[in-house]
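subagent[fold] <- orchestrator: predict structure for attached chain, return tokens only, no commentary.
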Amino acid sequence: MKQLFLLMSLLFFLQGYSQQKFTISGSVKSKNTGETIIGASVRSGNAGTISNEYGFYSLTLPAGEHTVEVSAVGLAFYTNNISLNKDITLNILLEDESKTLDNVTITASSKSRSLSSPQMGIERLTTKEIKNIPVLLGERDVLKTVQLLPGIKSAGDGNSGFFVRGGAADQNLILLDEATVYNASHLLGFFSTFNSDAIKDVTVYKGGMPAQYGGRLSSVLDIKMNDGNNQDYNVSGGIGLISAKLNVEGPIQKDKSSFLVTARRTYADMFLKLSKDSSLNRNTLYFYDINAKLNYNFGDKDRLYVSGYFGRDVLKAGETFGLDWGNATGTVRWNHIFSNKLFSNTSLILSNYNYNISIRSGANDFNIFSQIRDLNLKQEFQWYLTPRNNLRFGFNSVYHIIRPGEVVPASDQSSFNAQYLQKRHSWENGIYATNTWKATDKMNITYGIRLTTFSVLGKGDFFAFDMDGNITDTMHYTAGQFVKTYINPEPRLAVSYQLNSTSSVKASYVRNVQNLHLLSNSTTASPTDKWVASTNVIRPEIADQFAVGYYKNLWDNNYELTVEAYYKDMQNQIDYRDGADIFINSDAVEAQLLFGKGRAYGLEWQFKKKAGKFTGWLSYTLSKTEKLINGINNNKWYNAKQDRTHDLALVVAYQLSKKWSVSANWVYYTGNAVTFPAGKYRVDDQVVFYYTERNGYRMPSYHRLDVGATWILKQRKRFSSELTFSLYNAYGRENAYTISFRESKEYPDRTEAVRLALFKYIPSVSYNFKF
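subagent[fold] -> orchestrator:
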């Protein structure tokens, strides 16, 4: 019996030893700059993981000999043979791809869309792709590039606003280093607030977004800023037709800390001053933005990041009218590694958006101010639980303060009395957990939930209304008193099944909830649009989205085919009563609104070439977006204003030589749904137009070709420079920006349509340098 017991003990010992596993963990960085690498693939055999937003990875493997392989976009392939008999820390430094011989192969493999990941509806952009897109006046623009992706639609000619899978422009969560950017546009939408020189990573979630994101129905645009070079000092910049920019970065203490400062300013107002026309030379039109970041390593387990963005637009018409608006964000983040499997990030975030309007016209002498401000605390953990389970959980708490409008007389002679719309306070909380589970070698499942609470807080008056929008009751609340709390669970589920080494199918379901809403009568974002929070009357918007997709890598991973279909069901959608005026000076804005439901469905298709001298993609979206709201369109389904049937984009880039590269993009889409008059009648000798169906007409179809070229002047280790040329709207298509109606001067009994086009041929040239 004793021998049998010893034999069984030995078998258990050998079995335990044979199953013994250890963990490799560390960070992935660029050897040249010290920047952490997001989304680097770390693999050994069939086991693998990717580095998180801060470059951290954790990979658990059986004891024994292993070959670790690491790849990332634009960086050289890395391999390391290790003998694994204990937990080890392996920090990986990747060299630039240009220093390797297998340039094309590495580019193709590192850019492959993950077939095994359950994540759907995700698009990632590299700074190189952004750089190659010819855009308006030569300004490299993240949002203009995003609009060329399937399922994402431009809000209009030259506009930085966008619609995703049937959602409105305010249903996109735009983050810069985790801080919400409420108005991501400069110069009334012609440029975005994001300076491409400050950006490290751009990720767009069109559906199935992970549980750590919340607060919007349609999409997440997550933008990460560069950390700054901790190896060497660099200065880069550029001068274009209307703007100049400068970027300075370098180590504070080599290998441990770095800084980054990027600034940009337009000088269109300087050209106005050259005019002899006094109606022009007294005007002002410019914007500026500044990005800044510091980071510091406190040993191997702790790192601190401090980043901020400050941007402002100024528009003045002489001394009579002025409008300025802008964003300010700040983020303080602390990374801590508790163990080789547990990573923590704590963030304190500030977001602020406001606008000022000044009117100086005789007795009409006043200022208007509006603001939305957030204070946000976020705590998140990533726990690499087992080789087959990766758990992510945390919470965030946001305090919202909205000042909807303040009218203040600018002088004692003003005929206006001071008016202050009530401040609105609210408290939004979310807890979440999500797990990515490798169920089998071919099937991966991500499942999780986000639980959101939104509390409407006093101080202030809140109202009840009848069916016609008349106030029936007024309720008074003191400061900090809870008016109403909404609780909403947001489940998430995504599944992928890999058919073979080059193809997979995926399916997902996600529920999203939105408690902040943008009120606008236009199809594009305006700096004076109103943000309002959910109240006792305005309920949280809810969207349930289902999606399926097929993914195929072709011809040695040099090409990629993606097809996704989606259906989105939306509750508590907001639209305006006929004849509504949302800018009236009243706290009871709900009287102008009606509520109902919506639906959106579509098919997205993309074919992409990822490697070689010739790269680019072709994307097509077929979609429909509708609303059903009692009191609008005779209580029947009608087109949402962002509804478009067809949307097509072709993007190509070609490397002609070491010094020359060329690029082009062509877009076509069905015109937006609009409400045009169906007839007219006269009242007191004045023409009044008669409207019937809401959004029952279409703007003309839109199409445009842009071309560009880059000429590298010098390419040295310590200095490089280039010239970029672009031609926006190369064949001069006069696309309709607006269509208005008026009486004909020659034939007063006739009504004529007046079509306004903004851009025809817009050439540009800019000079960029780095040393």
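orchestrator: received. Logging for downstream: The two ends are 79 Å apart (CA to CA). The chain has a mean pLDDT of 88.
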